[in-house]
Specification:
This protein is mainly alpha-helical and 367 residues long. The protein has 17 helices and 2 strands.
Length: 367
Amino acid sequence: MVTVYLCLLIWVSVLWAVTRCGRIYVYSRTAKCHFRTNLFLVSAFFSAFLLMGIRGDTVGKDTAVYKGYFLGVSQLKWKTFFSGGWDKQFCTTEKGFMIFEKILSYFTQNGQWLLIMCAVIYMCCIYCFVKQFHVHLLTAFVSFLCVGSYLPAMNVMRQAVAVGMCCMAWIHLQKKHNRKAILWILAACTFHRSSIIFFVTMLLKKIPANKKNFLLAAIATVAFSIGGRGIVYWVITFIPVYAGRYGRGRWEITSANGILILWFIIAMVIVELAFTTDWKNRENHIIFEVMLCGMAYLGINILGQSFDGFDRLSIFFQPFLILLFEYGGKCFEHRISRMYYTGVAVSMMMLFLRLSSTEQYQYIPFW
């Protein structure tokens, strides 16, 4: 039911207007100082959380599987817990998620609560990410719905929780709290081992921000997109679970179709930032990191068109697309900038409705 997603967009737009472009300002009678409350952002994320938490088993291909495994894990005894019990059916290599399921099972046997709690963790982490780095809140939120991993999170739920934890790691990384960042990434790995790829973001912080390094990164992205299959096959030989699950026709490769337009727009924003940003200003290094993450997203998605299953890794870089579109309008003058952010918001809303109309996201509540 696209109607549900359309109602979400209408509700969020009304909230944005009522809260004066996302924030309500409260002034003191005795002083010039004032404080502001992110009522819009809290309400918008809570609304998106409700849709994710109360979804039915058919919304997302893996949703019913997660609920079934939750009941299985709840029956395991601690002494055989890490071996998977009687038949190893419910054992995964990500023990953090299993422990999370087991603890939750002491409070409820209803698998719907697993969806709700995973949605709580994921949405709270993304909320902190958006609140920390964004100014244009409506554009940021609808970008999150469209390209920020919201819809995929209804399918690859365990991986989505790991993405949220990685976003928290990146917040600490920007504050130079490297130990906390590492702990968050390691915690994410216990929910989904593919989170190890996020350690790359710590290396990106060490690369000097300039046009030369941007061009080298762009060349590397193109080369990887075209001829990276051999590298991926070599890497997964060290991960037997992935070697047996992905590649060589084991998964159906989705057609790019209209997503090509989005790829083109992302590439154009990256190029625009590369040649308009003042790289002598060290504070702009965060923009360079976001650009590199955007290129990683493109490279993984493009290669995923020839290596089935590999495109799932792109979910770790999707939240950076929200930041990419945020920074994309900063080089324009005020009037053009407003047109840019309005255009991005409207485009994201339309694309979100298009993406949500696919079969796996046809919305049905659990009742």
